[in-house]
Amino acid sequence: MAFIEHELKFLLTEDRFAEVRERAKALFPEASCEVVTQVNHYYDTPDYALHKQGITLRIREKDGRLHGEIKRHNFGKSHDSREEQFEADGLPAKLVVDGVEAASLGTLETVRESLILPTYRLDFDVSTYWGRRDYELEIEFQESALPEVLAIVSRLGLEDAGKMPGKYSRFLAAREFFLKTR
User: Fold this and answer.
1) pTM above 0.85, yes or no
2) Which of 86, 87, 95, 127 is the most buried (most CB within 10 A)?
3) Residues 6-20: tens digit of each pLDDT
4) Which tens digits make up the pLDDT trace of 100-145?
5) Residues 171, 163 contacting (CB under 8 angstroms)
6) Mapping DSSP to helix (H, G, I), strand (E, B) and coil, where does residue 13 land?
7) Backbone conformation region of residue 71, classed left if phi is above 0, alpha if psi is from -120 to 50, else beta
8) Is residue 23 left, alpha or beta, with left meaning phi > 0 and alpha meaning psi from -120 to 50?
């Protein structure tokens, strides 16, 4: 199964994250709320060949189930990516995508609190990886909702994220730092 994902991302300090989350809850009392923990097991080559091609390869654990995902970034517009999902019967030592053999690089755990509305969702993510913790707001939306989403960004007092590094890029930077300092 493949689909196009439209999203904006905002990396925030812990205090700003809490402030924006509370403001969003006040702005959207009608939103349904969902809290989940998901663990991403990332795969790539030692020189990050997939990442250099704009590809994230992961096995995601969520609700006690595993599934694989190939995410191709910047598919079309700047806020878009193409996601393909595949079945995963465990955590393999290696995976192959586009003829590239990739090995497990480690895990990133996210506690996600989502405010869900009809044409978009606000995902407040606290992620832990390589001894670090970060705070991110992801707004996933239907393409037709972009003008409304940009208005929400303004109401929440945020700047458009543009090309902010995603979780996988931050994970790799932290991994490199860890490997160089151990």
Assistant:
1) yes
2) 95
3) 889 899 999 999 999
4) 999 999 999 999 999 999 999 999 999 999 999 999 999 999 888 9
5) no
6) coil
7) beta
8) alpha
